[in-house]
């Protein structure tokens, strides 16, 4: 398998170029001026200008949106993983009437991203008085994050050997004690995978905030990027700088945990 | 997608303590899920029968009028057709590319882990960033046409976003760029479940690299591919973000990229016809569900054996 085939490396290199091209375009574009971009749309910065970046970083809007996005993503992630692992434990380790139906209920949610429910969801959030607030975004995000989380976690929890549970029972460990002391530590890889998916999903979420958050002060980053892009539509360089700054957090987060994602999905794909 | 041997807890009678545990552990998740997923879908079915601007209680009951209007509206027909195109093209374009990439990245090679991370970058970047960047690059005086001109292929420079013949293909390129990484992640995860012994044994018997992939890896990857195809189909039917971000609410239909979801938002919320928007949501829901059920019944059945339906 480990033949050193130069063609393989060439293909891999071209691929990386294709995947990164637009990203590099955004980052470099932010270091250019508008006249540079007009004269040579695909050129390199000459000279390099840092003004676009520093202006955005010294303004309040960008940081406020980073704050909103962070709060929404962290709360969503913690809640989805907590509620998800609790429900998954019941589905994986208890036998009771209605378990199949409960699993089917969550699994059906997998078929329907928020798109289908967005109009009534907006009305529901409006009736709850949560329009223009982060909880108005967070609560639906938790609900729509649960199916993926549960589908990934149930096989994970089920794979924990029965012997461990029996040994715990002999040691007079209750089921809840078993959950707390054994199941949670053993399922950390699965929790991290689902947590990353929930975090990135929330960080990038567009449709839900578009409906719920209409007030500039409550904007998350994706809305901020779009508002910025239409407000400064003639100032392409600044738009590119804003865009590239807004993708840093998700990229950092992902590169830290990339291995975990592939590892965690392995169990899920196997089912 | 075979379920691991089911570990059934002993079936003794369930005591009240256990019942309490079940309720306490699963209650919050069920509550949130029913409140914010199931309830809105049911509300959509209810509002869909009314002509309603979204204020107060809906009173103007119009029966099936909204649905008749939707099914007769050529703008909806076009959106539905675009969804169908996107669905088929996504499978045909992304599937083979992703399988090829996964095979490539599954080999031991120098820099493998770095390449894996880099390939997933587009998947991690938000739709808004993707849309903003590609919209700028694909303008008539944007970076793509500039590159084409500078390498002497100026004849290929086109109006990528506004030309109705081309726009759907531009969209497909962007979608492939954005989502192929996800398919590759899934396929790589699936390949890790294939025991190395199989390909080693085949290699000992003199099978070439391509023979091993063709006769061992691909068949064993079948279940993963079918699951991916399912997720891709659902995603294509509900596509909204990228189209709405790049083409906006006005030009998507003239550029030939409007989808059922953009139609729903434009005709429902933006036009403040909430009753009508909800009816579109119901149509979208029914179409997605019918296709999902057919797919599960005929394609996924042997893979999941209840994993998506029974939970055993």
Structural features, described:
The complex is a heterodimer of chains A (271) and B (312). Chain A has 13 helices and no strands. Chain A has 271 residues and is mainly α. Chain A folds into two domains: 1-49, no CATH class; 61-270, MetI-like fold. In chain A, 50% of the residues are buried. Chain B is mainly α and 312 residues long. Helix content of chain B is 71%, strand content 1%. Chain B is built from twelve helices and two strands. Chain B has a two-stranded antiparallel ribbon with strand order 1-2. In chain B, β1 and β2 (60-61) form a beta hairpin. The model of chain B is unreliable at 1-11 and 305-312 (pLDDT under 50). At the A-B interface, α1, α4, α5, α6 and α7 of A face α1, α3, α4, α5 and α6 of B.
Biggest interface reads: A-B, 107 and 113 residues
- Count of domain modules of chain B: 1
- According to CATH, the fold-level topology of the largest domain in chain A is MetI-like fold
Task: For the record, give the distance between the C-alpha atoms at the N and C termini of chain A, rounded to a whole number.
Answer: 28 Å
Unreliable spans of chain B: 1-11, 305-312
The quaternary state of the protein chains shown equals: heterodimer
The CATH top-level class label of the largest domain in chain A: Mainly Alpha
How would you state the average pLDDT of chain B, rounded? 80
Q: Got a strand count of chain B?
A: 2
Pfam families (chain A): BPD_transp_1 (PF00528)
Keywords (chain A): Cell membrane, Membrane, Transmembrane, Transmembrane helix, Transport
Main location (chain A): membrane
Family (chain A): Belongs to the binding-protein-dependent transport system permease family.
Q: What secondary-structure arrangement, pairings included, does this model have?
A:
The complex is a heterodimer of chains A (about 270) and B (about 300).
Chain A: H1 6-29, H2 34-39, H3 51-58, H4 60-93, H5 99-109, H6 114-127, H7 134-158, H8 162-170, H9 175-186, H10 188-204, H11 207-212, H12 221-231, H13 236-270
Helix pairs in contact in A: 1-13, 4-7, 4-10, 5-7, 6-7, 7-10, 7-13, 10-13, 12-13
Chain B: H1 16-47, E1 50-51, E2 60-61, H2 65-72, H3 74-106, H4 112-124, H5 127-137, H6 143-150, H7 167-192, H8 196-204, H9 209-237, H10 241-251, H11 260-270, H12 274-304
Antiparallel strand pairs in B: 1-2
Helix pairs in contact in B: 1-12, 3-7, 3-9, 3-11, 4-7, 5-10, 7-9, 8-9, 9-12, 11-12
């Amino acid at each position: 398998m480990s033949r050193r085939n130069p063609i393989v490396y060439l293909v891999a290199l071209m691929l990386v170029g294709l995947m990164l091209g637009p990203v590099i375009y955004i980052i470099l574009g932010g270091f250019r001026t508008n006249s540079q971009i007009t004269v040579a749309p695909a050129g390199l910065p000459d000279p390099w200008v840092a003004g676009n970046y520093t202006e955005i970083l010294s303004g309040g809007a960008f940081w406020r949106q980073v704050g909103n996005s962070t709060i929404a993503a962290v709360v969503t992630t913690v809640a989805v993983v907590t509620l998800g692992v609790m429900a998954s434990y019941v589905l994986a380790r208890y036998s009771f009437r209605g378990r199949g139906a409960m699993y089917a209920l969550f699994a059906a949610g997998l078929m329907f991203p928020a798109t289908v429910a967005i109009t009534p969801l907006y009305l529901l959030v409006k009736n709850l008085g949560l329009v223009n607030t982060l909880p108005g975004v967070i609560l639906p995000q938790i609900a729509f994050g649960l199916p993926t989380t549960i589908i990934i976690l149930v096989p994970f929890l089920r794979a924990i050997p029965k012997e461990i549970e029996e040994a715990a029972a002999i040691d007079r460990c209750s089921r809840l004690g078993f959950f707390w002391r054994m199941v949670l530590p053993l399922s950390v890889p699965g929790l991290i995978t689902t947590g990353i998916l929930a975090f990135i999903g929330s960080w990038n979420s567009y449709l839900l905030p578009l409906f719920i958050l209409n007030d500039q002060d409550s904007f998350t980053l994706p809305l901020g990027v779009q508002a910025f892009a239409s407000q400064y539509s003639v100032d392409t360089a600044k738009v590119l700088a804003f865009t590239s700054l807004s993708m840093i957090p998700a990229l950092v987060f992902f590169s830290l945990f990339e291995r975990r994602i592939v590892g965690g999905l392995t169990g899920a794909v196997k089912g | 997608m075979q379920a691991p041997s089911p570990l059934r807890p002993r079936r003794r009678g369930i005591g009240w303590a256990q019942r309490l545990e079940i309720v306490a552990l699963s209650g919050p998740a069920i509550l949130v899920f029913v409140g914010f997923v199931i309830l809105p879908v049911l509300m959509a079915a209810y509002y869909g029968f009314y002509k309603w601007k979204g204020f107060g209680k809906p009173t103007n009951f119009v029966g099936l009028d909204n649905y008749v209007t939707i099914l007769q509206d050529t703008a909806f027909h076009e959106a539905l057709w675009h969804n169908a195109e996107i669905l088929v093209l996504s499978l045909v374009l992304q599937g083979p590319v992703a399988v090829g990439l996964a095979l490539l990245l599954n080999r031991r090679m120098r820099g493998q882990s770095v390449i894996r991370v880099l390939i997933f970058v587009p998947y991690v970047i938000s739709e808004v960033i993707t849309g903003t960047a590609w919209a700028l690059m694909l303008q008539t005086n944007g970076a793509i046409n500039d590159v084409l001109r500078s390498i002497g292929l100026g004849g290929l420079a086109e109006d990528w976003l506004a030309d109705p013949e081309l726009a759907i293909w531009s969209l497909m390129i962007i979608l492939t760029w954005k989502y192929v990484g996800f398919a590759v992640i899934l396929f790589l995860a699936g390949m890790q479940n294939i025991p190395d012994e199989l390909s080693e044994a085949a290699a000992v018997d003199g099978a070439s690299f391509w023979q091993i992939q063709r006769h061992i890896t691909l068949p064993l990857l079948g279940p993963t591919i079918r699951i991916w195809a399912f997720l891709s189909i659902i995603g294509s039917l509900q596509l909204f973000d990228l189209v709405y971000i790049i083409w906006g609410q006005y030009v998507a239909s003239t550029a030939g990229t409007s989808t059922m979801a953009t139609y729903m938002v434009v005709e429902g919320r933006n036009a403040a016809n909430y009753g009508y928007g909800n009816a579109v949501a119901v149509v979208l829901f029914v179409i997605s569900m019918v296709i999902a059920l057919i797919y599960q019944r005929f394609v996924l059945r042997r893979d999941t054996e209840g994993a998506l339906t029974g939970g055993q």
